[in-house]
């Protein structure tokens, strides 16, 4: 996992750089978002003075690297390359360099250009005069207290510095140059890892109308797997053909289904039952939105989260059931599978 820290002056374009890196697959974690919650919880006005005061108070009490520690802990649970935005303390840089694969990126521009930008964006923290803007920046730029913000020194510690004093194309080209130099890792996240296993399990499926797979996981350990196929000892679709039956839907339309096979989710749950494996609190990974019957079994097993590679064209009822049961349902793709 690579962690890219973002530092730089106000209005320099840090958010734009974050968006460019997000498009390249980076996950975003923001110290500013963390501070905003603390500021709001204290009932303070959400302006730059409040953010600075709360940040300094947290670092004074918990240590200069406290916020970075918290964000890195969250990032490591995900495991993907990520951005930690708003690095402003030397101890944060030192901690991150010691505890992860870390690169610090600084974004800067002429102060007059930056002030024009914040006037245009007109956010709640930007409504200040140019004089106040300059004074705020000077106050944050240096400090003798190692637990407080020291933006000037942090910027000097950057591995790469981008000049965002021109147009957006110029900034993009600089980010691209830096990105090509980064030690990018391709280690998959846990969701990506288990979904790759689903794709492999699905290759064992014996019905070519929908070669689906399922993996049930708890505490990052695979408990059971299942794929669509006929009950043990009975002939498979791939060997003898499909067993079709017509179903009359609520709207009067007739749809045709193959009923020879057991769904991947059902087979996985049956495997758990045979082996005496409890599924309470587990996560189920599958090819598409489970059908109504599978959804009911998933709910009654105590599974808490379902992750699907795709949507199923007739999966709305299952989605509603999961929502009512409090089960988290995530889709990797919004593509709808129909057959």
Identify the notable features of this structure and list them briefly:
alpha/beta, 339 residues, five-stranded parallel β-sheet, six-stranded mixed β-sheet
Could you walk me through the main structural features you see in this protein, from its secondary elements to its overall organization?
The structure is a single chain. Helix 13 links the parallel strand 10 (283-288) and strand 11. The chain starts with a strand and ends with a strand. Helix content is 44%, strand content 21%. It is an alpha/beta fold. The model has no long low-confidence stretch (mean pLDDT 87). The strands form 3 sheets. Strands 6, 7, 10, 11, 12 and 13 form a 6-stranded mixed beta sheet that branches. Strands 2-3-1-4-5 form a 5-stranded parallel beta sheet, with helices on both faces. Strands 8-9 form a two-stranded antiparallel sheet. The protein is elongated, with a radius of gyration of 26 Å. Helix 4 (66-78) runs parallel beside helix 5 (90-99) and helix 13 (292-301) runs parallel beside helix 14. The chain has 14 helices and 13 strands.
């Amino acid at each position: 996992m690579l962690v890219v820290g973002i530092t730089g002056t106000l209005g320099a374009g840090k958010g734009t750089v974050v968006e460019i890196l997000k498009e390249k697959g980076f996950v975003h974690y923001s110290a500013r978002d963390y501070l905003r919650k603390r500021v709001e919880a204290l009932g303070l006005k959400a302006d730059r003075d409040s953010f600075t005061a709360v940040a300094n108070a947290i670092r004074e009490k918990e240590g200069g690297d406290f916020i970075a520690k918290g964000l890195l802990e969250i990032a490591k649970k995900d495991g993907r390359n990520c951005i930690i935005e708003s690095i402003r303390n030397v101890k944060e840089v030192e901690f991150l360099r010691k505890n992860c694969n870390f690169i610090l990126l600084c974004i800067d521009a002429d102060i007059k250009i930056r002030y024009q930008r914040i006037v245009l964006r007109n956010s709640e923290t930007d409504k200040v005069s140019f004089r106040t803007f300059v004074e705020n920046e000077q106050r944050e730029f240096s400090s003798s207290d190692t637990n407080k913000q020291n933006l000037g020194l942090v910027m000097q510690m950057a591995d790469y510095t981008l000049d965002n004093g021109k147009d957006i194309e110029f900034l993009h080209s600089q980010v691209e140059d830096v990105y090509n130099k980064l030690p990018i890792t391709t280690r998959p996240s846990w969701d990506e890892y288990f979904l790759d296993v689903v794709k492999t399990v699905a290759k064992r499926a014996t019905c070519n109308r929908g070669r689906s797979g399922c993996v049930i996981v708890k505490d990052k350990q695979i408990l059971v797997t299942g794929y669509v196929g006929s009950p043990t000892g009975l002939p498979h679709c791939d060997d003898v053909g499909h067993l079709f039956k017509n179903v009359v839907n609520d709207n009067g339309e007739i749809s045709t289904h193959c009923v020879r096979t057991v769904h991947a989710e059902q087979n996985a749950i049956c495997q758990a039952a045979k082996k005496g494996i409890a599924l309470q609190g587990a996560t189920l990974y599958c090819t598409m939105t489970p059908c109504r019957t599978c959804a009911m079994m998933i709910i009654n097993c105590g599974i808490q989260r379902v992750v699907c590679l795709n949507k199923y064209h007739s999966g709305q009822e299952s989605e509603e059931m999961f929502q009512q049961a409090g089960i988290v349902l995530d889709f990797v793709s919004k593509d709808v599978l129909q057959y």
